[in-house]
Amino acid sequence: MAKDSSQFNALNPEEERVIVHKGTERPFTGKYYKNKEEGTYICKRCNAPLYRSKDKFDSFCGWPSFDDEIPGAVERIPDPDGMRIEIICANCKAHLGHVFEGEGFTVKNLRHCVNSVSMEFVPFKEK
């Protein structure tokens, strides 16, 4: 269940433009586009876990790409024009990006194309 909006993390203007108003960051500019560290990507707005680093891959599209999400973390909604499928945080409904099927980049044949500003990265801690 989504938190009360007063409990969401504060967003800067660019984050609000993307997360709340369904914008897109410029390609090849996001801080997680080339990130190779092991860890978990969480929602910038509510801190819900979204993606694991093991599911991230290089698609060369300009945004972080994942071929799987943490079960139950992401919802899919057709864009009003029917051309693409939007992905949002299942917890707080923050805009993450879009999902594409059938491109053949991975065995799962799925690409979650996610705005870096929609996420935070939590690295795995050494034991």
Largest sheet: 6 strands, antiparallel
Cross-sheet strand order for the largest sheet: 3-4-8-7-6-5
Sketch the topology as an H/E string, one letter per element.
Answer: HEEEEEEEEE
Low-confidence stretches: none
> What overall geometry do the principal axes of the alpha carbons give?
globular
Question: How many domain modules?
Answer: 1
Question: What is the terminal separation in angstroms?
Answer: 32 Å
- The helix count comes to 1
The CATH homologous superfamily corresponds to Peptide methionine sulfoxide reductase
What oligomeric state is this?
single chain
What percent of residues are in strands? 25-35%
So, CATH architecture? Beta Complex
- The CATH top-level class label: Mainly Beta
- Mean pLDDT score: 93
What would you call the structural class? mainly beta
Q: What is the fold named in CATH at topology level?
A: Metal Binding Protein, Guanine Nucleotide Exchange Factor, Chain A
Rg from C-alpha positions?
Answer: 14 Å
Helicity, in percent?
under 10%
Count the beta strands: 9
Could you please describe the fold and organization of this structure?
The protein has a single domain, classed as Beta Complex (Metal Binding Protein, Guanine Nucleotide Exchange Factor, Chain A). By secondary structure, it is mainly beta. Strand 3 and strand 4 form a beta hairpin. A 6-stranded antiparallel β-sheet has the order 3-4-8-7-6-5, with no helix packed on it. The model has no long low-confidence stretch (mean pLDDT 93). The chain is globular.
Please name the defining characteristics of this protein.
127 residues; mainly beta; Metal Binding Protein, Guanine Nucleotide Exchange Factor, Chain A; six-stranded antiparallel β-sheet; EC 1.8.4.12; Mss4-like_sf; Met_Sox_Rdtase_MsrB_dom
